[in-house]
Amino acid sequence: MKVVAATRSAQGSSASRRLRRANKVPGILFGGSVNPTSIELDHNPLYHSLRVEAFHSTVLDMELDGKAERVILRDVQWHAYKPQVLHVEGTMCPGGRSGLQRAGCWLTARRSKPTSQVGPRRRTGAQRTDRRRGFGHGQG
Questions:
Q1: Which run of H or of E encompasses 98?
Q2: Domain ranges across the chain
Q3: Within its chain, how far is the Cα of 105 from the centroid?
Q4: Domain 2-103 has CATH 3.40.50.720
Q5: Which among 42, 83, 96, 105 could disulfide-bond with 100, CB atoms 3.0 to 4.6 Å apart, if both were Cys?
Q6: Which residues, listed in sequence order, are joined to residue 42 by a DSSP beta bridge?
Q7: Model's pTM, two decimal places?
Q8: Considering Cα of 45, then 74, then 94, then 32, what sign does the dihedral take?
Q9: Nearest to 73 by CA among 115, 119, 102, 31
Q10: Helices then strands (H, E): number in the chain?
Q11: Confidence (pLDDT) at 104
C-alpha cells in the first residue's frame, strides 16, 4: 500500500495543532540509518487506509519527499470522540526480506511448543469457584 508524506520542520504542540487544522496528520518515523524524522500526511487518505485492517500489519511503501521508503506502522493515536487521526508512528525498514529481519521489522508469530506437546490446561485458584455460592442463591 502506498502512502505519501512530507518531512516537517516545525515542532511542538502548536505546530501540530496548525497541521490538524489544515487537514494534515503529524507523525514520526524511526529506524533506518537516519535520526527520527518528523513527517506530515494528508488526513483523509490516511483515515480511509486505516479503515482497512491489512494496512496495520503490512510493509507500506511511503513516498517521503519524492523518495521511496519501506515503513511499518507502529502506532496510531485517535481523537477521543471524533473520527480524526491525531498522530502516527512508523519504523523505516531496509529493502529485502533479509534486511527486514535484521532490522526487526519482519513480524512473525511463533509458538515455543507445538500444540501437540502442550499438556492439559490446569485450573488456577481464581477459576475454582463454587457455583452455588454467591449472590441470589440463598447463601448468606
A1: helix 97-103
A2: 2-103
A3: 12
A4: no
A5: 105
A6: 24
A7: 0.66
A8: positive
A9: 31
A10: 3, 6
A11: 54
End-to-end alpha carbon distance in the chain? 61
- What are φ and ψ of residue 37, in 5° steps? -115, 125
Cα–Cα distance between 1 and 12 in angstroms, integer? 29
Provide the residue type at 123 as one letter: R
Those residues with Cβ within 8 angstroms of residue 140's Cβ, 6 or more apart along the chain or in another chain: none
Length of the chain: 140
Query: Which pLDDT tens digit goes with each residue over 48-104?
Result: 999 998 888 889 999 999 999 899 999 999 999 999 999 999 998 876 555 555 555
50-78 core/surface letters (b: 16 or more CB in 10 A; e: else)? eeeeebeeebbebebeeeebbbbbeebee
**Average predicted confidence (pLDDT) for the chain:** 78
Query: Looking at per-residue confidence, does 43 or 99 come out higher?
Result: 43
Grid cell digits, residue 89: 508512528
